[in-house]
Each structure stands twice: as structure tokens, then as C-alpha cells.
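During the practical work, I selected for study one protein's amino acid sequence and its C-alpha cells, as given directly below:
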Amino acid sequence: MTTRTATGSGVAPEDQPGIQPGGRRRRNTTGRPRSRDRARPGRRMVWVPGGTFAMGSDDFYPEERPVRTVEVDGFWMDEHPVTVSEYRRFVRATGYVTVAERELGAGRSPGAEYRPATPGSLVFHPTPGPVDLSDCRNWWSYVPGACWLRPEGPGSSPHGRERHPVTHVAYEDAEAYATWSGKQLPTESEWEYAARGGLDGAVYAWGNDFSPHGRLMANVWQGDFPWRHAGLGPLERTSPIGRFPVNGYGLLDITGNVWEWTSDVYRAPEPDRAASAVCVPLAVSLAGPLDRRAPLPRQRTAADTEAGTETGTEAGTDAEAATVTDAEDGNRVVRVIKGGSYLCSATFCLRYRPAARQPSDSATTACHVGFRCVVHPR
């Protein structure tokens, strides 16, 4: 698989009938692999034909800019995020223990002085009323014992949620599953290309209308975040796969429901265009004093994140940095996550869009982050 920024004139788009207004399909410029190479590599995987597309957006958050033309080769992608039942099969077959379940010093990510000592994960709690949106501790809590098997902490269970996306998985947990299943995690450009479903330049994965004909198209927060749920079919946590329509490539829950890991290391925009958000807090921001000027590992400086108390779609801070050490080079690693989640709101974090992106500490786990895998043809 190659992903490359196109040079020259690229390929002109073609308007085709049957497309939601606001998007255009791009031609497949890389061709399809030979039939023997296109044998379906696993159950519930869909073929995403290669092509060029306009990646990013100039209309929303700074980290999505600039729009650029990117070319992606064809690949297979999981039809839906990996579910609780699928992850359970992996754990039973391998005995794997997730990051959120590990004691520090027992294979859990280093940086103990910056992270809670007790195994656990981040859990969302709705507030009783309006709160200061500049401080994510108002609705996020680090819950000891929370993990993929106990999504709300001790006493909770995923029973009845077997077909929901698995959550509370760190990057290495997702990567371990992908390796075991003979797959990989998608790159950011692969993920965004697939999420657009052939609709080039559309706001959402289904077009430009948030709720065409009054139909809710994804599991996202409706109402006043983080305290009041309202609107079309309110949901207060993850939803089972298949509840909402597929996109143009046949992918389910590609936006909303859960954020999804990609293999790309996060690259911040220029300092004067740094975005603000509290979509994906890091454990350190909940375990100690909140430092809005703390730098993201590797990619940012302290000046990149400004202190502030704005609310609305420009509110918050994108990630208060924790010290997480990469096992190979001793540097902290922040990855790109895509797609938004059931906690994304138009009044606070309008990131249930293909172009949206957020940084996430590779060792952070939370109740709204999952993943899906890809396979590249031989």
C-alpha cells in the first residue's frame, strides 16, 4: 500500500447520479488488484477502491487544514469497528491483557510519575447541568478498574453490548488485535478516504445534510453537552453496529459511536493555527492539576496550546500532555484518531466528520475510543 500526495493536475471528478447532494465520487485511478488478490481476507470486510480525494477541510478546525489532494491505493477495511465479542475471542485465544488492566511495572506504559498507579480507564459522566466547558474534568473521571470488560468500572459488564464497539483499548491493544487477526491499523489518509465513501468534499460521511429527511445518520450527542441529551433518538453510550446506515463504500459507524485509532503519528499545525478541544483527554489531566500549556509529545511546543475559556465549537484544549514512553526510542508518542464519538456535539466538538482528527496519547484508554482494521492486497 502506498499513500502519497498527488502532484500535477490529478484526476478530474465525475458527477454521478444517485449521490447525496454535496459530494462527488472520484474515479478509481489505481485500478483493482487481480481477482486472486481480491479474495476477501476476512468476514465482514469491504473493498475500498483506490483513488484520489481532497483530504482535510478548511471550514472547521485548524488541525484539519489545508485541504490537499491525496492518492490512496485500494484496500480492504472492516465493515464496522471491532466489537466486544470479537475482542473477547482474541483475548480468550491469546490471554492478552489490555493496557487498562495492567499494573504499572507489569508491562503497562512507563511514566508512572505522571499517570494513576491503579489500573483503570477514563469514563464519561454526564453533569447535572451546564458546566465550564474549558475543564474536561467536569465530565471525565479516571475510574480504577474500568476496562473493556468493565466499561463503567467495577460492577459493570459488557453483557448485552456484545455487538457494540469494544472500548477502553490503547493503541497497542488495537495493534495486538490487528496482528493476531492478520490485519493492520489504517493510516489516517486511508481512514478518511474510506469514511468519505466516494463523496469528495462533503461535510459528513453521508453528504452535507446532518439529518436527511429527518433521519439520524450516526450516534452523536444531541442537545447541550455534557448534561442534556435531546433530539433524534438520543443515545447515552455506544450503540450496536448496524443501527445506522452504511456509507458509500458499505462501512458502518464510520463516524460517531467511537473514535478510531489510526497508525499515523499526530502532526500539529503551525503554532498560530493550533486547535483547541477536549474530545480526548489524557489521564494526567484528570490525575493532577490541569495545565493547558503542557506540550503534546514530539509534535508541539508549549506555545502551541493557548490557555482559554471559550465555549462552543472552538472550546477547550486538544490534549493535556502525559508522559508516555515509546518502548523503542524513549520518546512519547501521540497518534491520530478519527471519526468522532457518541460524545461529539455540534455545540462543542463537531468532529463526527471524515476530515476531523484529534491527537491521542498512545497509552490513553477511554469509554469512547475503539478501532477497526484494514488489509492491503498482495
User: Anything to note?
Assistant: The first helix runs from residue 84 to 94.
